[in-house]
Structures are given as C-alpha cells and as structure tokens.
C-alpha cells in the first residue's frame, strides 16, 4: 500500500481530534504531502498515530482574555504633591512606569506624561485613584476581548504539534532514503515555524491581557517658578574696593557738574530780567553817590 494516503489520513485524523472539528489542517501539510512516498509503511505506525490522535484533549473553555487600556488627563493644584501621591498609588496597586516624561520650563505650567503598566485585576481601582488626584480633564477607558483569537491559536498549536509528531514518525521510518528524508525535514521545518509564530502570538496576547496600560497626563494649575539659590559672595579685594571708590567719586563729580549745568539752564530765561534789575540798581547807586558829592 502506498504511504501517501496513509500519511494524509493520519494528519486529517489528528487535525480533527486536535481542533474539535473546527479547524482545517495546516496549509503546509496539504503542500508537502505529495513529497512523502515511502513504500509499504508498517502497520504499527498507523496504529500509533490513530492512538495518538484519539488521545488529544479537546480544547477546554478558556477564561476571558481582555485587553484593558485607559487615558487620563488630570489638572492638579500642586504638581510636586500630586507626583508623590502618584508614586504611592503605583506601589499600592503593584504598577510601574513603562515611560515617564516631566517638563518643568520656567514660567510655564509643569506637565508630566506617564505610561503605566498595572495588573488587569488592579486596572479599574488604579484609574479611579488617579482620577482623584485633581480635576479630570479627560478620563476614558477601552477594552478588547481577544478570547476567541486566543482559543483559536491554542487549538492551532495543538494541531500543528500533532502533525509534527506524525512527520517525526515518518522521518524515523524513512531510514536512509535521503531524498525522502530531506523532503520530510523541510515539511517539519515549515511546521515548526508555524508553531513558533503561533506560540509567540499566544505569549503576546497573554502579556497584553495580564498587564493593562494607562496613559496619564498631569498638568499643573499654576505656572512654575523655580526656587532661586542664595548667592554667597566673597569679600572684595583691595583692587576691587579702590576701583569701586574711584567709580563712586567720579559719579559724584559728574552729578555735581550736571547739577550746576542744570542750574545755569534754569537761570537762562531769567538773565534779561536780572540784567535790567542790575542796570537799574547800578544807576541808582551812581545817582545817590553824585547827590552826596554835590551836598558835601
């Protein structure tokens, strides 16, 4: 009897048992089956494959796999106090920062953007606690149920592993027929690649459903004014004191000169009046002097 019908029948049987009749055999099997042509395979191989296929467990009902995510934007009265409270909340809810950025430009409102990872069971409790840090400007949550995808991939992995066992059995029976060995090994390699991709997707889904993601933005209500440190000055040297004294004296002299000049400018409009008064006074004095001379 030819090995091709036997191999195809065995793979179909294990695929149906592994997926509960809901999934088709992997595409690689349909493409690679014509390459397997081992004459007169022994009957125990079929029996072993049938027994193995009959013992594959049906996929169990999995727990719900849900990916939770949230986005919050909070305005706080005091940024430093809110940041300390945030660190305390993370410790209480077994969460951690996946990413953190704080901008503290002088004269502007401080802003902190945080990406938080938290266990799914603590997700809603942490969201409520974060919203209480200040005034929520935005508070949104989202969920994605990936249970169906997770169960389908699990069944596919079981199916592919069952097919891999059949290929390995055929490889052992191929013996020293090199052409057949090479073809079976290529089928095993393709099958293993599909298994690894499916398991990687399962791992990713498991990680996403076990750890939820929260994107938090904290905004300070008031503009940030950084504290200024006290400047400690050393005692001035003699040269510095002499230069400062000369500069002070020269500034005083310049101020005096400016004051005199300003006085002259202020008296300028009164010069004609003063000149007339002086002239009149001088004439009066001469007239009085002449009168006294005549009388004497």
TrEMBL record:
Keywords tagged on the record: Coiled coil, Membrane, Transmembrane, Transmembrane helix
InterPro entries on file: DUF4349
Coiled-coil parts of chain: 143-201
Superkingdom classification of source: Bacteria
DUF4349 domain ranges (all copies): 64-282
Transmembrane helix as UniProt keyword: yes
TM annotation in the entry: 259-282
Pfam families from the UniProt entry: DUF4349 (PF14257)
Name the record gives this protein: DUF4349 domain-containing protein
Species of origin: Schlesneria paludicola
